[in-house]
Amino acid sequence: MNMPRRSAFTLVELLVVIAIIGVLVSLLLPAVQAAREAARRTSCTNNMKQIGLGLQMYHDVFKKLPAGWRGCDPSTGKAHWFGVPGWAWSSSILPYLEESAVYDGMIHFECPITDPVNQHALTASIGTYRCPSDVGEATFSMAGGGPSVSSDVSFPIQTATSNYIGMFGTLEFHHVCDPSSPNCNGCQGDGTFSLNRPCRFADLLDGLSNTMIVGERHSVLAYSTWVGVVTGGQHGVARVAGVATYPPNSTDTPAHYFHNFSSLHPAGTNFLLADGSVHMITETIDRELFHALSTRAGHEVVKDF
C-alpha cells in the first residue's frame, strides 16, 4: 500500500522565505522609525506651543516677559551674570504650564537656587520642558568651574534637564557678560532674554512673527536646565539661554557647543516665535537670515523662511 507523500518546504525554499521576510522587515523598520520620529516631533512642537502660550499669559499679567535670568553679587548688590538667586525665565512661567505644584510648593525665589530649601525644585523634571526625541537623562550632574559669588556651593550638583532655552541673540556671552571683556555691556543680548532685563512685546521691533524667542538644545553635546544659572556652575549661563552665532546643530567650533541651538530631529531644530508659532529651522539656513530672526530690533527685512 502506497502512503501519501507529504509536501514540505525544501531548504532552498525556506531560505528564500527567510530572505523575503528579512527584506520586508528592512523596508518596514525605517517607515516605523520615521512614524515614531514624526510623533516625537509633533509632541516637541506642542511643548513649544505650550511654552509660547505660557509666555503670552505671563506677558498679559505682568505686561512684560520674564527676565532671561536674575543674578546679582550679594556683597555689592550689582548685577552679576553668575549671580544669585539665578532663577531663569522658564521657572517664572511654571504656573502657566500647569506646574503650580512646583512653583508654589517647591521654589523659594528669594533664596539662591542652590539653597537647601530649593533642593526638590532643583531636580524636578518638567515634562513640557523635555523633547521626546532627546536621549538625555531627566537630571544631569553639573560641574563647577564658572564664576561664582558664593563659596557655599559644592559641586557637582544634580540639576533637572530641559531642552528649551531662551534666545540671547547673536552676541557671545563671554564678549558682553564677562566683566574683564572690553565689550562687556552688563550681559545684555540683542535677543529677547538677558540678565535681569524683562522685555515687552513692544520691544520686539522686528515684529512678533519675525523674532525667535525660544529654541531647542539636545543633551548629547550640552545639557541645559529650566531652573536657572547656578553660581559657579560650568557653562551656567549657557544652560538657560542660547546664542545664534552659528546655525543650529553646527559643530564648527567645539567651544561653542554649549552656546548653540540643536536638536536630534532629522529635519532640523524647532524654534518658538514671539507670536506663538513654532517653526523648524534647518542647519542649512542662510546665516544672515538666522541672525535676523534671532534679534529683537535689528530692523532687518525677513522674507519667508
UniProtKB/TrEMBL annotation:
Span of domain DUF1559: 33-288
Pfam families on file: N_methyl, SBP_bac_10
Organism whose genome encodes this protein: Novipirellula herctigrandis
InterPro entries (alphabetical): DUF1559 (IPR011453), N_methyl_site (IPR012902), Pilin-like (IPR045584), Pre_pil_HX9DG_C (IPR027558)
PANTHER family per the UniProt record, alphabetical: GENERAL SECRETION PATHWAY PROTEIN G (PTHR30093), TYPE II SECRETION SYSTEM PROTEIN H (PTHR30093:SF2)
Official protein name in the record: Type II secretion system protein G
